């Protein structure tokens, strides 16, 4: 696993007698439908679906499907095939490169008209279609899903009032509160520019210089950092959203998606075991569940505060690096998110998706914090770079209602390109005109953050969210492994800051680190083949069924 010095960890883990915390067979919880897809297509189409054509639509003769000993410059089929292949890749997402998705719907189950006029959240029983993309934060398009890092879900809900995009991650605390930190936060977790190897010095150095990140880091290093698949994790849009009802009354809310299947996580050793056989376990599990009609679902709740409530708080409710304190808000249920269909073409329906948190609808003006303001710019620019200026006219991103705009031209797709309507605004020739929303609040909420590091959220996480001794110990172990190759100065700076969070946690990490360092010193004298031989034997035994239990049958 990329987050740790696995060679040393595994050598110590296997040679020195530590057992898997929970040994079990790798089982997908549903019938594996993925290998059946081609056979199912053939059963659906007993005969070929038609004659191959060139991209211009001309039928291709059988003799033109082989180019050996022929004039390649006279074959349009060859030219189509080769040149298109060269240009097939599009720029990869800067983050969340590896992903998988599905179609589904959002269903309203409770009346929340008191809080928001947004059509999508009003009318019990109303179902609104959507597309969803799950992803992993740092992984490239062919990455390993079982790495300990943020898992995300991006939603595009096709409401009557336009697209509502909600972007979530699987932990409720974010890593930074200054949008200027985002590029450097990502760079610190990627590969070193010279070695092209991930260097944990970079991440720990950045974290200790931006200590507000410790809270999110502890969530990720805990059991919560490795969910048992996409279906078994809760999801959080992070920001405090401003919403308003039809009278213009304003509320501040945090949305939370709670898995209805039940929250479940993996230990590091369990994730390693699954990854050795199926690094795409998360995607395979989602695919199989939906194809077998075990539709994943989440309950959407919102934690609610009034503007008067905010004035009484002793903390900043707009700080994305912390949680709201218990007793300062109330929780209201809105509805259910259900995923019930796999797209027939992943690239067309998922990878061409452009999810932007700035896509909001009337009744949800959106967050006022600085991080969200930065994301408004960053996501638009990323989509323009990856998909082009007309990314919102690609089918998966196109709103269901009529789109009337003064933006036109540029690279395809352009759709009808607004035909012959006036191309400038304002005009007196009956081009599209704006409307006035009478319920829109007339005042704007302004939020100011400070740069003081607040360790209280991290302390609370360690002492009150992690309730069991094993959870605390696994957090300490996971953090200790990441420190193995970190420069002593940076390591000591980090451990000092952790002691400010909680002395017990710092003590546990130091003790575990000393054991790992001793094992590392011994392992450094063993050649790589010998070092990994115990792991290879362990994997062989696992595949042959000798490491079993029935926990996940």
From TrEMBL:
Source organism, top-level taxon: Eukaryota
UniProt entry tagged with the keyword Oxidoreductase: yes
Source organism: Chilo suppressalis
A Pfam family: Catalase
Location of the Catalase core domain: 53-433
SMART domains: Catalase (SM01060)
Family membership noted in the UniProt record: Belongs to the catalase family.
Name of the protein described by the UniProt record: Catalase core domain-containing protein
InterPro entries: Catalase, Catalase_core, Catalase_immune_responsive, Catalase_sf
């Amino acid at each position: 696993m990329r987050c740790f010095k696995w060679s040393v960890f595994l050598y110590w883990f296997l040679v020195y007698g530590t057992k898997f915390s929970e040994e079990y067979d790798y089982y997908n919880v549903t019938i594996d439908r993925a290998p059946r897809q081609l056979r199912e297509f053939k059963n659906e189409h007993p005969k070929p679906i038609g004659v191959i054509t060139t991209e211009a639509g001309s039928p291709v003769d059988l003799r033109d499907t082989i180019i050996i000993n022929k004039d390649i410059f006279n074959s349009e089929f060859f030219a189509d095939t080769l040149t298109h292949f060269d240009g097939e890749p599009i720029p990869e997402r800067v983050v969340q490169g590896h992903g998988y998705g599905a179609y589904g719907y959002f269903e309203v189950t409770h009346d929340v008209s008191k809080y928001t006029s947004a059509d999508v959240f009003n009318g019990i029983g109303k179902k609104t279609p959507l597309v969803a993309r799950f992803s992993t934060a740092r992984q490239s398009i062919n990455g390993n899903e079982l790495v300990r890092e943020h898992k995300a879900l991006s939603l595009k809900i096709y409401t009557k009032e336009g697209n509502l995009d909600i972007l979530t991650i699987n932990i409720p605390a974010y890593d930074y509160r200054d949008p200027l930190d985002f590029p450097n936060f990502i760079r610190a977790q990627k590969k070193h520019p010279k070695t092209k190897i991930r260097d944990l010095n970079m991440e720990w150095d950045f974290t200790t210089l931006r200590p507000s990140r410790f809270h999110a880091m502890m969530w990720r290093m805990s059991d919560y950092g490795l969910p048992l698949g996409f279906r078994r994790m809760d999801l959080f849009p992070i920001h405090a959203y401003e919403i308003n009802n039809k009278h213009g009354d304003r509320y501040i809310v945090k949305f939370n998606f709670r898995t209805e299947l039940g929250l479940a996580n993996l230990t590091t050793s369990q994730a390693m075991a699954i990854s050795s056989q199926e690094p795409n376990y998360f995607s395979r599990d989602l695919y199989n569940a939906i194809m077998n009609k075990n539709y994943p679902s989440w309950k959407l709740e919102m934690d609610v505060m009034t503007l008067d409530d905010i004035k009484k708080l002793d903390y900043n409710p707009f700080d994305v690096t912390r949680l709201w304190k218990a007793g300062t808000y109330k929780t209201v249920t809105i509805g259910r998110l259900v995923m019930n269909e796999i797209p027939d073409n992943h690239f067309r329906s998922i990878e061409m998706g452009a999810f932007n948190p700035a896509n909001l609808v009337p009744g949800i003006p959106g967050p006022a914090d600085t991080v969200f303001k930065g994301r408004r710019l960053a996501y638009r620019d990323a989509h323009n770079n990856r998909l082009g200026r007309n990314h919102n006219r690609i089918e998966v991103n196109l709103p269901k209602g009529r789109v009337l705009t003064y933006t036109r031209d540029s690279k395809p797709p352009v759709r009808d390109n607004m035909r012959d309507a006036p191309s400038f605004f304002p005009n007196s020739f009956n081009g599209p005109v704006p409307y006035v929303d009478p319920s829109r609040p007339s005042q704007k909420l302004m939020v100011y953050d400070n740069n003081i590091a607040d360790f209280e959220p991290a302390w609370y996480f360690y002492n009150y969210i992690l309730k069991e001794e094993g959870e605390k110990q696994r957090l300490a172990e996971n953090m200790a492994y990441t420190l193995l190759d970190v420069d002593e100065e940076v390591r000591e700076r980090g451990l000092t800051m952790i002691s400010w969070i909680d002395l017990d946690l710092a003590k546990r990490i130091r003790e575990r680190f000393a054991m790992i360092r001793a094992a590392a010193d011994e392992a450094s004298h063993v050649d790589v083949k010998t070092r990994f031989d115990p792991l290879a034997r362990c994997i062989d035994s696992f595949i042959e069924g000798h490491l079993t239990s029935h926990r996940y049958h």
